[in-house]
Amino acid sequence: MAEARPGTGGERYVPIDKRSGEKSVVYFTRDLSPEGLVKIYDKVNATLVGKTAIKLHTGERNGPNIIPRSWVKELVETRLPNATIIETNTYYDGDRYTTEKHKQTLEINGWDFCPVDITDEDGTVMLPVPGGKWFSEISVGSHLPSYESMLTLTHFKGHVIGGFGGSNKNIGIGCADGRIGKGQIHADEKTGDMWGIEQETLMERICESTLGSITHFGEHNAFINVMRNMSVNCDCEGLNAAPVVTPDVGILASFDILAVDQACVDLIYALPEHGGAAIEERIETRHGHRQLSYMKELGMGNDLYTLIDLDNGEQETTPEKAVADIRPGWVPDKYNLPKARMR
């Protein structure tokens, strides 16, 4: 493979009217509740057949911002009773670095209502990356290919080096195994620095890792992003994540990974009175917009979409209209109460 060179422009937001191409459908609800999650899942469940994996970030111990367990439990019990949550061990030495520590953390965080498969517990396997310039294949947990469908259920938020964490980051980092795959993404082969990759190169490597996994599942992918408790830091930082200042927005879903991540970013930029400024700054300073532009270059989806408002008769709406009534500043909901955290 010829020496790869990263693209540019990851620090710049591209407005909707400056994009071109076809449109995908993205569903939207403001209903941040177990019922809201089930409602939007029903719009994208047609592709999920057979043995289904739920790719979820289960979080560090007692992490305050992850998707509430009660929401996921409701979804599993009412819609996906035979599904399995899948995870991988981490690249950094934390609460999920080894399988043993990871299982302890899952128990502490209350992920005990359905099976959780740490897919790299028994080793790794390589998946092809079609058209990749950094990778021809990506290392993932050896259990991953045993699944027939994957629902990517993502807590959308900021990220300390990725800019933002949507469905792309959830899969690209979260399906790559803890030692080899994540090393492929983060480590600088020339210097030996295990965290030496950043900005556009990092975004592109994350996208290529994601491409390997979603290509494996083909038409049997669906994506849901929950825009709640959006710190500028990832759930990997647990209790050390920066305080949430961005207002909650809602839940989005699509069969198109690029469209759902792009719509979330558009909603952040559309928040009234610069309510999304903290995450905007995080995305731009880390060159996170390259996640979106490179997904488009790789043919992973469309950055234009029709936004369907499930709260208003499934009418088409715009990001500006969708968030028009949201005021700046974050207000905790009932799921942030201490007793609710461990449900």
Strand order of the largest sheet: 4-3-2-7-10-11-1-12-13
Q: Number of DSSP helices?
A: 11
SS-based structural class? alpha/beta
The overall strand count is: 13
| Number of domain units | 1
**What is the mean pLDDT?**
96
Sheet-strand content, in percent, reads 15-25%
Radius of gyration: 18 Å
Low-confidence stretches: 339-343
Helical proportion, percent range? 25-40%
Q: Output the helix-strand order.
A: EHEHEHEEEEEEHHHEEHHHEEHH
Distance between the termini: 49 Å
| Main sheet characteristics | 9 strands, mixed
Shape: globular
Topology (elements, then pairings):
Blueprint: E1 23-29, H1 34-41, E2 52-56, H2 69-79, E3 84-87, H3 99-108, E4 116-118, E5 124-128, E6 137-141, E7 149-155, E8 157-159, E9 163-165, H4 167-172, H5 180-186, H6 199-217, E10 221-227, E11 250-254, H7 257-270, H8 277-285, H9 290-297, E12 304-309, E13 315-317, H10 319-322, H11 338-341
Parallel strand pairs: 1-12, 2-3, 2-7, 3-4, 7-10
Antiparallel strand pairs: 1-11, 5-6, 8-9, 10-11, 12-13
Helix pairs in contact: 1-2, 5-6, 6-9
Kindly describe this structure.
The protein is α/β, with parallel strands linked by helices. It has one domain. The chain is built from eleven helices and 13 strands. It has helices at 34-41, 69-79, 99-108, 167-172, 180-186, 199-217, 257-270, 277-285, 290-297, 319-322, 338-341, and strands spanning 23-29, 52-56, 84-87, 116-118, 124-128, 137-141, 149-155, 157-159, 163-165, 221-227, 250-254, 304-309, 315-317. The strands form three sheets. It has a nine-stranded mixed beta sheet, sandwiched between helices. A two-stranded antiparallel ribbon has the order 5-6. Helix 2 links the parallel strand 2 and strand 3. Helix 5 (180-186) runs antiparallel to helix 6 (199-217). The longest helix has 19 residues, at 199-217. The chain is globular, with a radius of gyration of 18 Å. The chain starts with 22 loop residues before the first strand and ends with a helix. Mean pLDDT is 96; it is low at 339-343.
